[in-house]
Amino acid sequence: MRIKYIAGNWKMHKTVPEAVSLAQALVKDLASCGHKIMIAPPFTALEAVAKTVASSNILLGAQNMSNAEQGAHTGEVSVLMLKQIGVKVVILGHSERRAIYGEKDEFINSKVKLALAQGLEVILCVGETLQEREAGKANDIVSGQTGKGLAGIPEKDLGRVTIAYEPVWAIGTGKNATPQDADAIHAVIRAELKKLYSAAAAEAMIIQYGGSVKPENAKDLLTMPNIDGALVGGAALKPETFIPIVCFDK
User: For 131, left (φ over 0), alpha (ψ -120 to 50), or beta?
Assistant: First the structure.
């Protein structure tokens, strides 16, 4: 039985005091929630939020990391730095990193390998653009991104990987895939994992949905058979919208 995993990606929002205040509210109000929960503040707030969520049921995540452990990489953040302040999870391959900053599958894969080698959990993001969907290429795109993102990753390490399906056309737009459409792509990802690894690995993989998830649609999405959680953007920035998503079944 796969657990439900709800992650909040705060993107480039929240000063340090704002981030701490939000984290404090979540620690208080989500203490009794049985689902897996992660929040990913901006880099500047990670250390302060790490102290806030310490000893709570909320994991600390980072929104990205370098593909190098250390060195002359101006502006980058190392996996070693993230580990030292208490980060447990890193989001890799987010559509904004792919589209705006030109990150390719092979580059993302190098980050996945490094994060896993250093003991972190990974959320690997995959998803198609509107043009790709309208051209009938959605299945091929997400299957390809899944395979390339996991290239060289042994099955024994998959327990520390979560895949997030985020249709690019539904991120921050207010649009979202129907629960049926989203579940169908999740099933495609699961079929690709079965082909790459095994039926057991495919069945065990937690696959989140990301793309304008909000309290109004969370339950319909999260009760679909292949949707195991959510990677939440805008709705993760306020307790009154994130908490109902995490507690969708209450």
Answer: alpha
Residues 6 or more apart whose Cβ sits within 8 Å of residue 166: 94, 95, 125, 126, 127, 209, 210, 211, 231
Q: Class of 5-246 per CATH?
A: alpha beta
Tens of pLDDT, residues 24-54: 999 999 999 999 999 999 999 999 999 999 9
Distances (CA, A) of 91 to 41, 210, 244: 11, 12, 22
Is residue 116 a contact partner of residue 64, using CB atoms and an 8 Å limit? no
Distance between CA atoms of 92 and 164, rounded to whole angstroms? Answer: 10
Measured between alpha carbons, how far is 76 from 149 in angstroms, rounded to an integer?
A: 20
Catalytic machinery residues: 94, 166
**Which residue(s) pair with 124 in the sheet?**
92, 163
In the chain, the amino acid numbered 149 is G
CA–CA dist 188, 5 (Å, integer): 19
Phi/psi for 28 (5° steps) reads -70, -50
Ordered alpha helix ranges (H), the chain: 16-29, 46-53, 79-84, 95-101, 105-117, 130-134, 138-149, 179-196, 199-204, 215-222, 239-246
Number of Cβ atoms within 10 Å of the Cβ of 129: 17
Separation between Cα atoms, residue 217 and residue 117, nearest integer Å = 36
Q: Express each pLDDT in 122-148 by its tens digit.
A: 999 999 998 898 899 999 999 999 999
Residue pair 209/166 in contact by the 8 Å Cβ criterion: yes
